[in-house]
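Support request, please re-run this one:
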Amino acid sequence: MRRSLGRALRGPAQWTMLFTKKSLTADGFTGFRPIDELDPMRIPQGPGIFAILRAADFEPAFLSKSTAGTFKKKDPSLKREALESEWVPDASVLYIGKASAGSQGNRGLRKQIQEFLDYGRGRPTVVWDARLIWQLRDALDLIIAWKELPASEVNSAEAAYHAGFVDAHGRLPFANLVQARSKK
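Re-run finished. Output below.
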């Protein structure tokens, strides 16, 4: 029996998701804009989940040096072998992240995604977890989508999407190096 992720967030039922543009759209994701055409002012300000996807014809070509900024003086670049071992060949989704409201309530999708974009342009930020995206030669061709959620559901939603992706593909998306866990 196939259940949507939205239903999974409300109960412990097992579910399967394909993690394609079609299935994400059916689950409430919107946007689906190429990174190089993204207008951050059109991204909602509230908390939620966002995903980075590749087009069907996207083939990975890895840069030897990441375009991302440093974080705490650490180079975000990985060796080609490490990047190749993280690549999930049959997956459309390359990264699943969250955007919480923050302790002051002034964060959210727009701010988190803007920081992600700034990081890819070489500015130092705290978006270290998605750094593998910026070692793809054609990273600006990737597509970003988002789903607004109540702040109280963001952590469990991220954990559920990660777990669902692992169920579907046997591992995390390419640029997710740490699996989210639902915080109690």
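The first helix runs from residue 5 to 10. The chain has five helices and four strands.
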